[in-house]
Known about the structure:
By secondary structure, the chain is α+β, with helices and mostly antiparallel strands. It has one domain: Outer membrane efflux proteins (OEP). 71% of the residues lie in helices and 10% in strands. The protein is built from 10 helices and 4 strands. A hairpin with a 2-residue loop joins β3 and β4 (291-301). α8 packs antiparallel against α9 (307-377). The two termini are 65 Å apart.
Amino acid sequence: MTDNRLMRHVIAYIAVCLMACLGASVSFAAEPVSLKDLLAEALSNNPDLRSMRERVRGMEAGVRAEGAFEDPWLKVEMEDLDRRHPLTTGPGNAMQTRYTVSQTFPFPGKLALKERMASKGAAAAKAGLEARALETAALVKKAWFELAFLSASSAINSELAGVFSYMAEITETRYSTGLAAQQDVIKARIEEAMLTGDAISIGAEREAALARLRYLLGRPDGPALDLSPELTDERPAFATDELVDKAIAKNPEIREMEYSAESEEASAELSRKNYYPDLMAGVAPIQRDGRFDTYDVMVQVNIPLWLGKNASRAAAAAGNAIAQRSALLAAKRRKAAEVREAAIEVEAGDKMLTLYSTGILPQSRAAFDSAFANYQAGTIDFLALLDAERVLKKTRLDYARTLLEYRKKVAVLEKTIGEDFLY
C-alpha cells in the first residue's frame, strides 16, 4: 500500500514537472514579428523621431507664452540719502522712497499675432514629424522587403542546390557506366560550389539588412529579431487622380508648408502693426518718514518715429509670406507629379509581375523540366542541362527581384500620398 502511494506521488510529481515545462515552453515561445509590429516599434522608438517628438512638445508648450504679457517691473528709488551713513541704503536712511510697479501693454492684436505665429510654427513642426515618420516607415518597409527577397533567394538557392546534388549523383552514375564525360561531373561539382558561394553572399546581405532595420527600430544592440518576411503578390487597386487629390490634402510635407506660409503671413501682419506704439503704465507709491502719503501714476509710449525702418521690416515680412505661398503652390504641383510618377511605376511593375507569373516563369520551369528529363534519357548533354538550370535560376531570381522592386514602389507611393495601401 505504501509502495502504491509512493508510486502515485512520483507519477503526480512527474506530471507536474511536465506541465510546468510545457507551460514554460508556451510562455517563452516567441511569436514571429510582423511588418505591422515593426512599423509600430519604429514609430515609437526610432531615435530621430523621438528627438523630433520632444522638439514638437517644446514648441507646443511655448505657444501660450508667446501670447502672454511680459513680466511687470519693480523699481525702488531712494532719494536724499544721509551721507553720514553712506553704506546704509535702506528706506529708513532716505528722505523719500519711491516704489514703481510698471507693466508693458503691446498694441492690441500684437500678442495674438505672436501666439498665432508660434502656434503655426508648432503645427509645421508636428507635420514635419509626421513626414519623417512616413519616411521612416518607408525605410522599414524597404528593409523588410529586402529581407523577404533574401529569404526567397535563399530558398531558391537551397532548392537548386538539392536539385544539383541529385544531378551530380546522376552524372557520376552515368560517368561510371561510360555514358557521361568526366568534365560533366566536374561541372556539376563546380555548380554546387557556386551555389554554396551564393548562399554565403545571401547570408552576409541579410545581416547588413538586419543591421539597418535595427537602427530604424532604435535597438541596435537588442535581442535577435524573429522575422519571417514574405514577398506577397498583393497588388493595390487605385485611381491616380484620386491619389493626387489625397496627397495634396493629406501629405504632411504639404501641410508643413501650409502652416509655415500661415506663420509668415502672421509675421507680415505683425510687422505692419509695428507702426503703432506700445503702452507702458505704472504706479509708484511714495514713502516719506515711514508713511505712504502720496503716489505717482506713469504712462509711457514708444514713438515709431523711424518709419523707414518699420517699412523695410514690413516689406521683408510681406516678401517672405509671398515667397512661402509660392513655394507651397510649387510643392503641391511637384507632389502631384511625384504621385503620378510613382503610380506609373507601380502600374508598370504590376504588368511586369503579370508577365513573369503567366509567361516567363512557367516557360523557364517547363524548359528545365524538359531538359532534365532529356538528360536522364541521354538525348542532350550536360551543358544543355546546365544552361537550362541557369536560365531557371535567373528567371526565378528576376521574378523575386521584380516583386521586391514592386513592393518598394508601392511603399514610395504610400509615402508620397501619406497613406498606406496594405498595412
